[in-house]
Amino acid sequence: MLRVAIIGNGNISYAHVRGYLDLGDRCKITHLVDIVPSKSEAQKQMFDLDCQVHDDHRAILDADDVDLVSVCTPPYVHAEIAINFLKAGKHVICEKPMAPSLAECDAMIAAASESGKILSPVAQNRFLEPIMNLKRTLDSGLIGKLVHAQIDSHWWRGHPYYDLWWRGTWQTEGGGCTLNHAVHHIDMLGWMMGRPDAVSAMLANTNHDNSEVEDLSVAVMRYPGGALAQVTSSVVHHGEHQQVIFQGEHARVSAPWSIDASVTAPNGFPIPNEELKNKLQTQYDGFEKLKFFGHTGQIENVVSAIENGIENGSRPLVTPADGRLTIELITAIYKAGTEHREIRLPLTADDPFYTVDGIMKSVPHFYEKTASVQAQEGEITIGGKYW
Ligand SMILES: NC(=O)c1ccc[n+]([C@@H]2O[C@H](COP(=O)([O-])OP(=O)(O)OC[C@H]3O[C@@H](n4cnc5c(N)ncnc54)[C@H](O)[C@@H]3O)[C@@H](O)[C@H]2O)c1
Predict the structure, then answer these.
(1) Is 35 in the pocket of ligand 1 (CB under 6 A)?
(2) Is 37 within 8 Å of 2 (Cβ atoms)?
(3) Which CATH class is domain 2-123+293-319?
(4) Alpha helices in the chain (DSSP H)
(5) What percent of the chain has pLDDT over 90?
(6) Nearest-CA neighbor of 28 among 10, 57, 48, 8?
(7) Cβ(95) – ligand 1 distance below 6 Å
(8) Predicted confidence (pLDDT) per residue in 279-326, tens digit
(9) Secondary structure E strands in 198-239
């Protein structure tokens, strides 16, 4: 049985608690930690957990009854907390975004490789069938060479969203919707298409005059071989219609799942390719079903990797390199949108955008944050409607 500590007991930590509880006696939550102890107490009570409560993660770095840690704090402390636990010999699942800068990601990766422990940045949407099966479809090669991706990371958040104390500043949230919302879809893009070699982008704050950060960005990426991707990151899209669409040379597939395929008429106009559409659908219907979904899916994947033994080469699906690639793409969007020019990848350690300080000195500061509340009432939603 793996003993688990959860650091930061706000909104998203509830998905982690449920994930561990879903795994029955494979895990036991032994510690909850939050700088606001009433948050931990409320969580402990709600789930009737038999665990200790602390107000500083350093109190449990040497605890014998911790094997795995979920970091569920605001982004600006992800690196510090993850590195402390990795150095103390604990496995770490770190909420998205892995960290607001590549310098922090590299320090986290170094700590993981020195300790030999698992570091898995959260990308829970991979553990949804429409996304997992889209990746399996691309890997099958049936749609041929990829030529275009359309990533619509459309969310909607009202003004009060940015009143929470850590949101709406470059210092503590680390960025706007590109870093904190589109991170999910940019992970999918990186997972499915790898690293582009050039990025162009524009940044805007169209509707949140109580926040320093962007509420809309539109980026274009170019891949080795010539394919393009367009990425819209937004918290101003009513209805939050999110989709990822891939065009291959033979067919188009997407999440939410749909297929189109054409062959050419003698004059170059399209004729539907029913045979390929049927083949893609049959393949899709035959993919193995997932047993666990979303956060529970990723937590189960990490727990299985630990149970199977990292010494035997067992690794979680979402790796630190995946988390870093996502941050590299996001950083490139910020740099391109700030400098109004095409940015070549990879971004290197001598780039001003490599560090949080460098990013903060450069990026547009759209508005002043006007309010700062400790907590907000109400449920949160986490996207992921792909069917
Ligand atoms: N995967 C997803 O779909 C998803 C959804 C929402 C949020 N998130 C991510 O989860 C993280 C937390 O977001 P949230 O919405 O739960 O925020 P939240 O403010 O509701 O919760 C964060 C908690 O961390 C605590 N905290 C802050 N600094 C701390 C520290 N140094 N040590 C211990 N506790 C500390 C706060 O007191 C708070 O209770 C963010 O990185 C966010 O981007 C992920």
Answers:
(1) yes
(2) no
(3) alpha beta
(4) 13-22, 37-47, 78-87, 102-115, 129-140, 177-180, 183-193, 274-286, 294-308, 320-339, 356-362
(5) 97
(6) 48
(7) yes
(8) 999 999 999 999 999 999 999 999 999 999 988 989 999 999 999 999
(9) 198-204, 216-222, 228-234
Calpha distance 255→134 (Å, rounded)? 7
Residue ranges matching CATH 3.30.360.10 in the chain: 126-291+324-362
The residue type of 223 is Y
Q: Residue 307 corresponds to which tokens in the numbers above?
A: 């149970």
How far is residue 374 from each of residues 35, 164, 195, measured CA to CA in Å? 11, 6, 38
pLDDT at residue 176 greater than cutoff 90: yes
Which CATH architecture fits 126-291+324-362?
2-Layer Sandwich (3.30)
- Cβ of 53 closer than 6 Å to ligand 1, yes or no, is no
Indicate the pTM of the whole model: 0.97
Q: Is the CB of 74 under 6 A from ligand 1?
A: yes
**Helix 102-115 × helix 320-339 angle, to 10°:** 170
Q: Is 72 exposed, middle or buried (0-12, 13-18, 19+ CB in 10 A)?
A: buried
pLDDT tens-digit series, residues 343-359: 999 999 999 999 999 99
Q: How far apart are CA 74 and CA 39, in angstroms?
A: 14
Q: From ligand 1's centre to the CA of 36, what distance in Å?
A: 12
Range(s) for CATH 3.40.50.720 in the chain? 2-123+293-319
